[in-house]
Amino acid sequence: MRSGRRNGSTRISSKHQITLPVEAMRDAGLEIGDVLWAEVEAPGVVRLVSAQNLLTRLAGAHTDLFTEGPPLDELRDEWDR
What is the dihedral of CA 40, 42, 45, 50, to 10 degrees? Predict the structure, then answer.
């Protein structure tokens, strides 16, 4: 028997670890070895986000930081040193 837990529930261990239910992983399209970020949405609510999805969401988010021209060219030249 499964120690009286409801289907889909989990507990936080003394090492602050949780085990994700297989159904939740499968439904979210997650696989063993995926990297996840923990985001706090509200007290008692933690959202796990695939690092791949997070990178996709943030890619190109700050296009206004640099414009073409001397400052950006100088930064690119630093990479070649």
Answer: -30
Nearest to 18 by CA among 48, 42, 39: 48
What is the span of the domain harbouring residue 64? 22-79
For residue 14, tell me if it sits in a domain: no
Q: How many domains does the chain have?
A: 1
Predicted model pTM: 0.52
For residue 46, the model assigns a pLDDT of: 94
CB 11 within 8 A of CB 18: yes
Does 61 map to a domain? Answer: yes
Assess whether pLDDT exceeds 80 at residue 23: yes
The CB density around residue 40, as the number of other CB atoms within 10 Å, is 9
CB 49 within 8 A of CB 36: yes
Tokens found for residue 23: 């159904």
